[in-house]
Amino acid sequence: MTDATTNPGAAGSIPAAPGTSTSDLAVEVRHLDKDFAGTRALNDASLLVRGGTVHALLGGNGSGKSTTIKILAGVYRADAGDLTIFGQTHDLGEYTPATAQQAGLRFVHQDLGLFLDLSVEENFALDSGYPTRRGGIDWRALRRKVTRLLAEYELDVDPRAAIRTLRPSDQTMVAIARALQDQDSEQQLILVLDEPTARLAAHESELLLQRVRRRADAGQTVLIVSHRLREVLGVSDDFTIYRDGRLAGALVDASPTEEELVEIMAGKAVRALHPTGDRAHADGTPVFTARGLRGGPVRGIDLTVHRGEILGLTGLVGAGRSSVLKMLFGEHTPAGGTMTLDGKRYAPHNVGEAMAAGVAMVPEDRAHEASFMDQTVTENLAVARLSENWTGGFMPRGRERDAARELIAEFGVKVAGPEAPYSSMSGGNQQKVVLARWMQRRPRLLLLDEPTQGVDVMSRADIYDSIRRAAAAGCAVIVASSDLAEIHALCDRTLVLSRGKISDEVAAGTLDVDALTSLVLREKTIPDAATEATP
């Protein structure tokens, strides 16, 4: 790691890169304060972004980075602080979204704001306006403009194609190109990317960030907010880290390790994010088996998971990870194959039968498949045990609240209380609630699909600890994840899926993350048994 990490108490003293001056800075934010109903979200925070660099703004949920981005966008009004953009100082009391646009800030959020059923060129025109000719839309002029922009942003995409037909990384690049389409030689723009890879698989993220890096090398200034530290390490020049609304560290022209960033974010070493080396909890007793399992993209797989074992499933998008879990949880009916649970035939016709057999699942899409956003934390926790809580024709709310308080404490959920709205929590704390909901049932088999997607690093560590505790208590766990660092940190054994079949089996400690990545990207083709030649 090069250059210095600031003293966390000296929030205004971010170092400039050697040989640079204030004139090299695209954004200067100093002494930023923001309160929400008496809660201090930002406390004397600062952020300095050098022009022509990729700058990562990092921190756990509640650290203040999202609040800072919304102040930069003019969505929130700061209580105090100084803001300078390309040398021009702005009054934060009068700062609005229009001010941010005029100053040269352009934002691409996790929700890209694209109209999926409209064409690429129509999405550009909705933002910039349609060119006209003789009283009508000049489609040729629009197509020429969009074709030029697509080429500039390395997008081999038909301007007439509907957005929903594009792969996810190309959709994100279209959003970036659209945001910067008014950039010219006379006006510099600053691109702010808020969790740009949260919805992307690992190889899609890599492709996107390579393109972003090349834009920065050509002079584009990029400020990126992300929970995926491994990704930003590969693309960023400078790093600003927030903790509890204050500046915890600033690294300029730096090459930190992931461990160094995590330690600054947490204020201490976080060991849960790394392999523990302790695999003694797996005792070799099979809990679940599948033989010749088929359905959807899954073309016939055999797997066994043992008591106390954490089994990983990974592979490219479409390889069948999620489909396997949904068949195990009774959400999808297999087209073929057999399954056993604790040595007995297992063939759930629905989710209820799977739950009754002792199977639990945390799905990938937390917001739509696992949460009741408009309900309380207590209600979200209690929903998995309604029949047990129902007494004498009524629901004892006091008992539910008491159980919720215990689970909140056990799983380290940061929330005002059990009656707080589920939607009021950060993504990491929402995911802890979903995990706690299922873990209170003491499942025999726990299925986890992308368990830490969109979760900050501290919540990730807590979730890893909870998963390991479940395995140590004898639960068999299957983790399906595209995050290979996660697979490497958590799993005793990993199955790599390729086009619906198992291409490789990897024992813990035998391969590092880079070697696992090579296996996944290799896309080995496994022939169907029916088409295999007989020796």
Automatic annotation (TrEMBL):
It comes from the Bacteria. It holds the Pfam family ABC_tran. Coiled coil: none annotated. The keyword Repeat applies. Residues 1-20 are annotated as: Disordered. Keywords: ATP-binding, Nucleotide-binding, Repeat, Transport. Gene3D superfamilies: P-loop containing nucleotide triphosphate hydrolases (3.40.50.300). The keyword Repeat applies. InterPro entries: AAA+_ATPase, ABC_carbohydrate_import_ATPase, ABC_transporter-like_ATP-bd, ABC_transporter-like_CS, P-loop_NTPase. Residues 27-269, 282-524 form the ABC transporter domain. GO terms for molecular function: ATP binding. Residues 8-19 have a biased composition (Low complexity). Signal peptide: none annotated. This is Sugar ABC transporter ATP-binding protein. It comes from Microbacterium kribbense. The lineage of its organism: Bacteria, Bacillati, Actinomycetota, Actinomycetes, Micrococcales.
